[in-house]
Amino acid sequence: MSQFPGANAAPDDAEYAVVGAPLDVSTTFQPGTRFGPDRIRRFARTFDDYDRRTNSFFTDHSVHDAGDLHAWDDAGEYLDFLEADLREWHDDDVTPLLVGGEHTVSVAGVRAADPDVFLTVDAHLDLRTEYDGNELSHATATRHALDVADEAVIVGARTGSPEEYERAAETDVTVVPPEEVGEWTPEFEGDVYLSVDIDGADPAFAPGTGTTEPFGLTSREMRDVVRSVAPHCLAFDTVEVNDRDDGQAAALAGKLLREFVFTHAAEPSA
């Protein structure tokens, strides 16, 4: 398995830890998220080490690649296993960078981080109580996150069931539709968990995902969201990349992970 390019820190010296979570048991339409972690590493190889905006090098930000935590078919057991691993990084004051895998892995990330706010970039509301009888479907990720976080902010959502929109109308959920993202600025209190479902992007930018949904965000809009939220964050993840394109989704996910690190390192805990 390859390492995320520039992730050259030893575990004991790390400030950030890339953790691969190749869970792929409930993806709908186009499976393949099990290939996401390695694919994101692969398509990040071409990125320059230097970032002009922050005048810093990725290799100077003490990023460690912890590899993948092997997934199996029992999502509940796997989430417990993943949560325990991520909690150890938090206990060592290391910021986890979780790389999925289907969006269900974010549930473990949120449980380990225990944030005040769950902010997700996503085409879907993911507020279902179950999907096809599965209470741990990737379509339930935000619903489960609200068992931990006080509020959820869903940026880029453009589809959902009537029941999900009813849940989204409650006071602990804010939905920012794609047409409003350009004018949106973060307004929340407390620590944030940032989850980037790559299908938040319009499929013209990231076709390699399970459930593509047109009329989505541009890659620059997603970058701007990550930059604006990163200083408030306890943890980050990017999920739902599969192997069904020529690397567009993986490249975008890897670049957004780097944008998170550059911004978070420059302005931690703002």
What distinguishing features does this structure have?
270 residues; alpha/beta; 8-stranded parallel beta sheet; two-stranded antiparallel sheet; globular
Largest sheet: 8 strands, parallel
Any low-confidence stretches, pLDDT <50, length ≥5?
none
Query: Secondary-structure element sequence?
Result: EHEEEHEHEHEHEHEHEH
- What is the terminal separation in angstroms? 35 Å
Task: Please tell me about this protein's structure.
This protein has 270 residues and is of the alpha/beta class. 30% of the residues lie in helices and 18% in strands. It contains eight helices and ten strands. The strands form two sheets. The protein has an eight-stranded parallel sheet with strand order 4-1-5-10-9-6-7-8, sandwiched between helices. Helix 4 links the parallel strand 6 (117-121) and strand 7. The relative contact order is 0.19. The mean pLDDT is 96.
List the helices and strands and how they pair.
Elements: E1 16-21, H1 36-43, E2 50-51, E3 56-57, E4 63-68, H2 75-91, E5 95-100, H3 105-113, E6 117-121, H4 141-145, E7 151-155, H5 162-168, E8 173-176, H6 178-181, E9 192-197, H7 219-229, E10 233-239, H8 248-266
Parallel strand pairs: 1-4, 1-5, 5-10, 6-7, 6-9, 7-8, 9-10
Antiparallel strand pairs: 2-3
